[in-house]
């Protein structure tokens, strides 16, 4: 049994109000921006903002102390000691008051052409031009004025409700995020005519898989969760009751495997057939690029 440690009400409040992005960075991690929130690099299903966190896969959340308990697997007293800096002599910022008034969702302003987007997706990511053009034609993909790829998610009435942007620069820091006030269940997707649904973490992996396995692809349904939350999957199933076969094509890493296990349990309980399709490398674009490199060497 661990020794009891007394914390004053002020210490408890200070620990609970720790800014979680400050905490993660002080621990040597690089949280990734996602709209007004951030995602820890080791578990993209979690978002943090100020002193609050939420796990979109498990549908649970809370404040700083419970985050440290869950993320770092520490008991309550150890978590509070860490947040107070008494465990490692580090100090963390306090969360600032958050204005909860949400900005209305709006798509980024498009650029006049899509040359840079096509060049990036085809030359660097090796995605098939015809595949890109199908999504462009259906207004699910375009280039914004900052030359980012914009992957658009529509609701069941065809109105844009979600946008994920990804920089096209080949050098420097990679930029990717969900546009503020995006509705998570309406992520980037495409409906098909048969009964199969293919599930991915990132839009580029979705396009890469189609490029790798093009036969009959427009008959299938696809969704990119822009993370590992099951909510976009459940929304596709709600809108398309005929779907009865789900292929989980998440990343070949710990976060992807854990998310596949969680999704499988939920989907099988719903009476659906579920199969895991795993890339050989970390993700489907890595597999596609490796195939291209082999082809280049052979020629």
Describe this structure in words.
The structure is a single chain. This protein has 299 residues and is an alpha+beta fold. The protein has two domains: 9-84, Alpha-Beta Complex (DNA Primase, Chain A), CATH 3.90.580.10; 115-298, Dna Topoisomerase Vi A Subunit, Chain: A, domain 2, CATH 3.40.1360. Helices cover 34% and strands 19% of the residues. It has a five-stranded mixed β-sheet with strand order 10-12-11-13-14. A four-stranded antiparallel β-sheet has the order 6-7-8-9. It starts with 8 loop residues before the first helix and ends with a helix.
Offer a few descriptive terms:
DNA Primase, Chain A, globular, 2 domains, Dna Topoisomerase Vi A Subunit, Chain: A, domain 2, 299 residues, 19% strand
Our estimate of the beta-strand percent is: 15-25%
Sheet with the most strands, sense and barrel status? 5 strands, mixed
Q: In order across it, which strands form the biggest sheet?
A: 10-12-11-13-14
Compute the separation of the termini in Å: 66 Å
CATH class of the largest domain, please? Alpha Beta
Counted up, domains total: 2
In total, the number of strands is 14
Give the C-alpha Rg. 21 Å
Q: What spatial form do the alpha-carbon principal axes imply?
A: globular
Which bin fits the share of residues in helices? 25-40%
CATH 2nd-level architecture of the largest domain: 3-Layer(aba) Sandwich
Mean pLDDT: 90
Instruction: Please state the structural category.
Output: alpha+beta
| Helix and strand pattern | HHEEEEEHHHHEEEEEEHEHEHEH
Contiguous low-pLDDT stretches (5 residues minimum) are none
Provide the CATH topology of the largest domain: Dna Topoisomerase Vi A Subunit, Chain: A, domain 2
